[in-house]
Amino acid sequence: MATLSKRLRTYLIMGSQNCQRDPAVILKEAVQGGITAFQFREKGTGSLTGEAKRELGRQLRDICWNNDVLFLVNDDIDLAAALDADGIHVGQGDMSVEHVRKRFPHKIIGLSVSTNQEMRQSPVELVDYVGAGPVFLTTTKEGAKSPVGVEWIKTLRHRFPYLPIVGIGGITTDNARSVIEAGADGVSVISAITKAQNIRDAAARL
After folding, report:
1. Closest C-alpha among 69, 58, 68, 52 to residue 24
2. Among residues 41, 61, 101, 107, which one is catalytic?
3. Which of 38, 104, 106, 184 has the greatest number of beta carbons closer than 10 A?
4. Domain ranges of the chain
5. Is 112 an active-site residue?
6. What would the pLDDT profile of 102-114 be if each residue is shown by its tens digit?
7. CA–CA separation, 154 and 85 (whole Å)
8. At what angle do helices 50-65 and 23-33 cross, to 10 degrees?
9. Is residue 122 annotated as a catalytic residue, yes or no?
10. Is 47 a residue of the active site?
C-alpha cells in the first residue's frame, strides 16, 4: 500500500461545474504543479451529462495517463468502465462497495467516511483507501456534512495503521500541513486548486 499512499498525496477532485476556465487547461496546470491523483467528479448543478460528460472524461483521463497521474471516477461504474479508469470513489449514499468490487475486482476503490458508525458499517477490507472528512468547513460540495476536524484523521490512523487515508473538505494551502501531520497520507481538494490565481503554485504548495 506504500506506493498507493504516495500516489494519493496531492489529489485533485474536479468537474466542469467547478471550473471558470477549460477543465483540461486547469488539469494540465495542476499536473505541472505536482498533483499525483485526479478524480473526475461531474456531479451537481451545471454538470455535463451523456456524451459531453464522457468526452470531457476522455480528455482529462488522457492528460492524467500521459503524466503518470492516477485517474479515478466518482460514483459512476459505467463511466469508470467506459473510460477504463484506474479506480472509482464512492460515498456513503452511493452504490455499495460490495457491488463496485464485484464489478471491478482489480481497480482502486475509495470510500468516503465521516463517523465511527460509517466505519463500522463499511466493508473496509474491500477498499483501497478512505476519504476522511469533511475535515474543515466546505461550501464546494452541495449538501456537505459538518466538519469532523483533524481528530477524525487521528482516530482513523490509530485504528487502521496501514490503510491509506486522504483528508477531504475545506482543505487549503494554509491548513493542508495539519491534515498530513494528523496522519493522512494525502489531501484532496477542489477549490484550493480550481479557484487559485496560480494553479501550478497552489498544487505545488499543497
Report:
1. 58
2. 41
3. 184
4. 2-205
5. yes
6. 999 999 999 999 9
7. 30
8. 20
9. no
10. no
